[in-house]
Amino acid sequence: PIHPLMLVSDAALPSPCPQRFFLSSARQVLLSHGGTVPPALQWLCHPVGHRFFVDGDWAVKSSPRESIYSSTSNPVDPLAQVTQLFREHLLEKALSCVSRLEGQSPVSHGEGEFSDALEYLNFLNRCADAVPGPAPSISATMDTTTGTDPVANWWASVVTMVIHGLQGDDEAMDHLYPLVESMPKVLQMSENPLPRAALHTFKAARGLLGKLDCSLGQCDKASDYLRDSLGGNKQFATSTIDRAMQFLLCDLLLIIRTRLWQQQMQATQPHGTPYQASALELRGFQGDLSSLRRLAQADRPAMHRVFLHEATARLMARASPTRTHQLLDRSLRQRGASSNKGASKQENHPTAREQAEALLLACSYLPPAFLLGPGQRMGMLAEAARSLEKLGDKRTLHECQQMIIKLGSGSTVTTS
């Protein structure tokens, strides 16, 4: 006899009958017999999985599909193909929560961008731990074989690492080190340089925490692989996931380089010697900035990240503050303007995190003549701190709180 859940597998094949009918019928028959859903099919009972299966833009191929973001042990099984596509869909949804690329249509721009992404990644890990095995997906006796997708698990760990890096959660990043360091063999053998860019970005972040030596050297390695993935070879970087992944890695690399510069500045401050970044530091930073600008050139929301990093590059080089102030002001002067532009333009405004970062850079490094009075700055910083706390950005929140304390005590907060 044909088990009712085999209808779901049949629905994954090209058919004139609607997938919604097959899925609904299979669920009703299964529940009426008191059955349990096999682990490899439980994603279909989740609202996100159901919506993808019924309304998603997917198709089963006759030949195995190649991807650096997921794997399957049975490429000829239609259901295995669909579940593989769904795992990549979850990865793309997670990226859309934190990416500023316009084509991603970010799910949220407020305090939930990190938490929403982590929820998708947790779901992705669960799905990757229960994928259809090499045997047929479903038998008449309900026995199912399940396997794992180490490639999807690895990328979920990478994006989780990036999010924790953006949040400044050093402990969470350190916890992920064994998972990210163990790159699946299929990715080690891949000609695509993007996985290696991700691995060396993580190593650079570890170096920033004092866990590894030569953090700047790891940044340069990651940058080289990232530029290779952006190169002229058309087999690389053609999908939405590719662009979002490149953008996030590039953004994190620039943040790491900024932190290294700030560490050097803090080390020289007690001696009263203003620190200017070396030619090597500036060259590496400008290289990553060029990559980020290339990824964001057609996406207005993503340009806010470019403006912030351009301002940082000028601060590192101790350039004239006038242009630096103009770049930071693009984020600061739009803090109260979003309600006046209409919903259609909402995504073009800086996020709460970007506004807080711009404010901190301005308060820390611009001359007092370019800044608002202490009272106004404290009000803006307090607002930024509330947003950062909801967002879970520990490092920037701590910096914001320290700046409020300095302003409150009347200390000089700008760095010459």
Molecular shape = elongated
How far apart are the first and last residues' alpha carbons, in Å? 80 Å
User: How is the largest sheet built, in terms of strand order?
Assistant: 1-2
Beta-strand level of the residues, as a percent range? under 5%
List the total number of helices: 18
| SSE sequence, one letter per element | HHHHHEEHHHHHHHHHHHHH
Mean pLDDT: 79
Largest sheet, described in full? Answer: 2 strands, antiparallel
Topology, number of strands: 2
Structural class: mainly alpha
What Rg do the Cα atoms give? Answer: 24 Å
Which range best describes the helical content: under 10%, 10-25%, 25-40%, 40-55%, 55-70% or over 70%? 55-70%
**Weakly predicted, low-confidence segments:** 1-17, 103-110, 336-346, 412-416
Structure description:
With 416 residues, the chain is an all-alpha fold. The chain contains 18 helices and 2 strands. A two-stranded antiparallel sheet has the order 1-2. Helix 4 (78-98) runs parallel beside helix 6 and helix 16 crosses helix 17. It is elongated.
